[in-house]
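Service request form, structural biology core

Requester: graduate student, group of Dr. S.
Request type: structure prediction, single chain
Budget code: on file
Notes: please return the result as structure tokens.

Sequence provided:
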Amino acid sequence: MNVSPVGMMGGIPLASPVTGSPSVSNGGMFGNAVERFLADTNTQQVNADQSVQQLATGQSDSVHETMLALAKADLSLRVFMEVRNKVIDAYQEVMRMQM
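Core staff response, request fulfilled:
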């Protein structure tokens, strides 16, 4: 079982020290974090699909490993969706601010 230390989520630091202005051309630090988080979520989904396919075709007989892969993929997707919802809420709140 891979447990991330506090302040880490899926190997992505939740906060990193500011070392200068982020580059606009590559999407900045936040964009890079979102891309890595999305790639990790996709990898979890692909691994779960492969595990189910191997179990269904008889290449694997480990129901336990398949269920773990499915649970990881489900949790990863749920966390990603919650982060997305919070980002959208924050954006909408900023857009409602009066200038």
